[in-house]
Here is the input.
Amino acid sequence: MPTAIAVTSADLVLPPTDPQTPTAAVLQGPGTQSLDEALADMNVLLERHGHVVALYPASIPAAHERRMHAVRSVMETDRIALLKIDLPPLGIAVLARQLRQLSVCDFSAGVVASAARLLSHYVYAGALLSSVAKLDRIPVSLKSHAKSWMPGSQFAVLANPEPQLIKLGGEDTTLSGPEFATQLAFARGQQASDWVTETLAPGWQVQRAQEVDLPAASPAWWGTTKLVEFAAFLPEISVLYQLVSSVRREQCHWCGIQLIGDRCGFCSAPVAPNENHPHAVGVLHRGPT
Here is the structure.
């Protein structure tokens, strides 16, 4: 059975890319589920799938994070990976779907878990905002704060992989985009602009744009309800497979599970520097995948 992928809210489960892409489990918070119920659900996942890889936002309520760690602690298992991801909500949803795609490949649970850090570098996550006055996730200059009070102002913000902020109609006209072929997921809040689909997507040479529902946590993350959130990502399983396969696999010196990159996804133990190898050059390229 494929490794189970889990998230912390149902709106982080995007529609599958193909019939082979499994869904994700949802780990409820303490406000909606008792500890006994959470333990029972996790036990079912482990019995069915062997391992669980759970992604959760860095902005999640502390009580929800403590609940997940409590479940793992009470069960005394090393088969649950809890991955705190510092991406906007839609970026996490995209990353979770990529792991769902990889879960049906011939990768071990440890490789799937550690692939999250690798793939997050290839997710271009941002938003079109009507104001940056309450945006505290990326650096915002005093000048931009002042401009956000002007009626009709719009800002294009990139949170990952490198923070960037531009005011539409200003000196900078484009956000730095990916140098490889992507698709785009976007979700509308209370913002009617078509800038994401009519300007950003063509400028980034996006192959396809798909509208999805806005995650409930997005307005709080971006500091406004007037937004259009977007995330460009690698959509093809063949490219994802090649990218992950190109990284040398190691065995965690602490828990013994297989991994890629510089840190174990299950126990968080770091890999010694001389054991870590970067992915191969030339895996990604501009053009059709």
Q: What stands out?
A: Residues 4-121 form a domain with the Rossmann fold fold (CATH 3.40.50.10440). The chain has two domains: 4-121, 124-233.
